[in-house]
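Problem 12. The chain below contains 321 residues. Write out its predicted structure in token notation.
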Amino acid sequence: MNKTETPSSALSGSENPSRRKKLFLVLGATIAVCALAYGVYWYISASNYVSTDNAYTAAEVAQVTPSTGGTIKEVRVVDTQNVKKGDVLVVIDDTDAKLALMQAEADAQHAAALLASAESDHVRAGIDLQRRQALVDSGSVSGEELTRAQNAASSGSANISAAQATIAQIRARVEQAKVDLSRTAVRAPVDGVVAKRSVQVGQRVQAGAPLLAIVPVQEIHVDANFKEVQLERVRAGQKAELIADVYGKSVVYHGTVEGFSGGTGSAFALIPAQNATGNWIKVVQRLPVRIRLDPDELKANPLKVGLSMTVTIDTRGKTGE
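Solution.
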């Protein structure tokens, strides 16, 4: 023993390796228990869920276009305004449409008068024919006169048919003129929120020109872009939980998987990825999965199109389909 070394220091040095060994054993046991616990958790719970934060709200946006052209007389809505189906959004100057309807109605009245005249002539021609037929046997009426009477009766019947056909055509014009007049008031096709309004008073528009859009926020769904390696057990009808960044974890939506897109995002890209040089690198693709939201939850906490979402799907349901 070194003269300067005390018995207590020698004992402490001999205990240090033993203490470190015990600490390593405890650490190893802790890691093993944690790994086992995580494995059990993964097997029982985590393996039954797939999640992604690459998800966004979407909706079938209604494009509002006029069915008839003309000059814009009124614009009754602004962006962000809530509207109901059937509400008047834009009014087109109806002067021409009203004149067309008035002309069609006048033509209808004239055609009705012609029909009445043709029917009156037909009645007279029929009476005249009956009289001449009664006098044929007595020789008071020649065969030529009888023929003229018969021709007049036939012409009267033809005139009635022609007048009836004309009236039918004019009535169709009247109905079309009424439709054209009603179309000068452009109405909302669905309930929703006005967006992308580009129309202004005084603007001349053509039929089919886009005026504005209506977003049916009450029918918003979520497009979740899952990696292809996550979709092995995902099926339509499975339940999902969703969190919107705008509300945070305080609001949890519940949804149902409706279906899968017909292709990945890259497949529908404006310039699809191609490689003809042989320097190919495999990239994991993402497939959009459409998820329907609970209408009551959506009403309680409204969403807008394009908001970021986090989606977790429970893959335990309908895995046999």
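Discussion. The longest strand covers residues 49-58. Students who got a different answer should revisit the alignment rule from Section 12.3.
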